[in-house]
């Protein structure tokens, strides 16, 4: 028979407490609190490569957008000029210009059936802040409506290229 131990003399064994989750994860959190220099450098390199690929494609977009707007404006003006012709049996003269679409022309040839509210509310200016030009008869068709582009003078390439009613098709 085993000797009986007196409960007063036997040291009490402490039960192991379950560790507090906040204390258990604290060292892990401190170690993972930031990014290492290597991780930051990898991110910088990836962003640099993306910038090299994307930026050249984005930089040309404003010029393309201006050219697209000029073509849309010219198409709208061309439609108004054609409506003018349907009502009055001829195009506005070069002297009357595009202003004949907004207000009744006072010079010859006088329009017989000019629309009461005009053919346009107002004349747009090109995306570079210059008025559109009009020729009747035109060099490229019955009439020409055109913008000289970014440089404001005839000819040019890229953003400086002339945009006209003959380039819409």
Task: Set out the fold topology.
Layout: H1 21-31, H2 37-59, H3 61-88, E1 133-135, E2 144-147, E3 163-164
Antiparallel strand pairs: 1-2, 2-3
Description:
By secondary structure, the chain is mainly alpha-helical. Helix content is 37%, strand content 5%. The protein contains 3 helices and 3 strands, in the order αααβββ. A hairpin with an 8-residue loop joins strand 1 and strand 2 (144-147). The longest helix is centred in the middle third of the chain and has 28 residues, at 61-88. The termini are far apart.
Any idea what the radius of gyration is? 39 Å
> Structural class, from helix and strand content?
mainly alpha
Q: What is the mean pLDDT? A: 82
Number of strands: 3
Detail the poorly predicted runs. none
The shape is: elongated
N/C terminus separation: 112 Å
Strand order of the largest sheet: 1-2-3
Helix fraction, binned, reads 25-40%
SSE order? HHHEEE
Largest sheet: 3 strands, antiparallel
């Amino acid at each position: 028979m085993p000797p009986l131990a007196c409960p007063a003399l036997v040291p009490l064994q402490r039960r192991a407490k379950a560790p507090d989750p906040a204390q258990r994860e604290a060292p892990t959190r401190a170690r993972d609190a930031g990014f290492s220099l290597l991780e930051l450098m990898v991110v910088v390199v990836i962003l640099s490569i993306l910038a090299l690929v994307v930026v050249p494609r984005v930089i040309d977009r404003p010029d393309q957008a201006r050219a697209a707007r000029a073509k849309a404006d010219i198409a709208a003006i061309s439609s108004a000029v054609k409506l003018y012709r349907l009502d009055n049996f001829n195009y506005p003269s070069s002297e009357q210009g595009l202003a004949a679409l907004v207000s009744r022309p006072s010079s010859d040839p006088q329009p017989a059936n000019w629309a009461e509210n005009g053919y346009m509310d107002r004349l747009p200016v090109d995306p570079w802040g210059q008025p559109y030009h009009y020729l009747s008869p035109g060099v490229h068709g019955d009439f020409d409506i055109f913008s000289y582009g970014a440089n404001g003078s005839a000819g040019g390439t890229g953003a400086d290229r002339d945009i006209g009613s003959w380039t819409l098709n």
